[in-house]
Amino acid sequence: MNQPLPGAAVRPFSSFDLPRPVLSALASRQLDTPTPIQDAVIPDALAGHDVLGKARTGSGKTLAFGLPVLVRLSGGQRRRKAPRGLILLPTRELATQVRDALVPFADRLNLSMALVYGGTPINRQISAVTAGVDLVIATPGRLGDLLERRALTLDAIEVIALDEADHLCDLGFYKPIDAILAKTPQGAQKLLLSATLDGDVDRLVRRHLPVHRRHEVDSAEDAPADMTHHLVVTRREDRVRVARDLIAGEDRSIVFTRTKHGARRLAKQLSTAGLTAVDLHGDLNQNQRERNLARFRNGTADVIVATDVAARGIHVDGIGLVVHYDPPAEHKAFTHRSGRTARAGESGIVVTLATPEDLRDVVAMQNKAGVSARRHEVEGRTLTLAGLATGGTLTKLAPAAGGAQRSNGGQRR
Question: Which residues form the DEAD-box RNA helicase Q domain (predicted)?
């Protein structure tokens, strides 16, 4: 059964104006109760409104925008080179995961989909969209390539969805997305989902969704009650040992590094120390990335070491531990990284490693994120996950101005 997140409405999916095939597909997957963002977005999207949704990673955004997109396209006529639906995403991994999540519903509605992203041969993608598909799921860069080659047109677009719009803009895609939206018909329905709504995301909203229904549900500033934060102060030369000791107590963990070289090196060091670790970063080709992600998902690897950009494609439930091996400089990155755990009502632990020299900056960054962390000094001793729960000193940090993530630094439940 789908477990609603805290605050979820009690009304079932069957109360929405969804076609019987979609309800049947939901029931076959034991999805009967929507998450808060699904409950908020789906009715307005089904009614044809432009919708702006603010929600954190792991809150159920894919079906929140995906089901209305598919319903909007059902029963329409398929045309060559002219898809009627478009979903834009920041990474190829996320594009693939969204496609996989929507396949059961698209099949019930007799809708065809095509994946369009870089890192793979373009000719096969050109053939797919030229033959005619109902929905294109794309990253902006490769979609732009296909538009330049006139492999498809956006003249027939009826509905367009942008997921993780803040990350799309962080990657420098504001101008391409602005141009893509400008190429769609004026009356096309637009759905935009994001963890934050400032900066370039706000510019996109003002330019392309001037009249919309807005929902802020389970957002990045509302951290899961079962996410616990720990700040571990350690010498730089001890970080690998400390990370290994913590990761050894969890079945599935993600470790973040600042650089591609750092991810590659740390994965090797953890593997040498007896863990099964894989890396994920921009230097890997598509086959390598997919192989490493598959090993992590199926449990043959128990830890993945990733950079920020690469990790935005990781959407895996059941991750119990996030380790900030290299703490980010920016609090939004900290929030996004931490959001890999404590998803969909589950509990999770977030550990930030800091050297004494970096401690002041790390504390300031966590303060901006509104985090209360339990602080541990580990010089000369072993620290395990069990030790995290029973030791350390809880430091209350003032929330950042304007509201920020608030997270529990107490024991994991």
Answer: 11-39
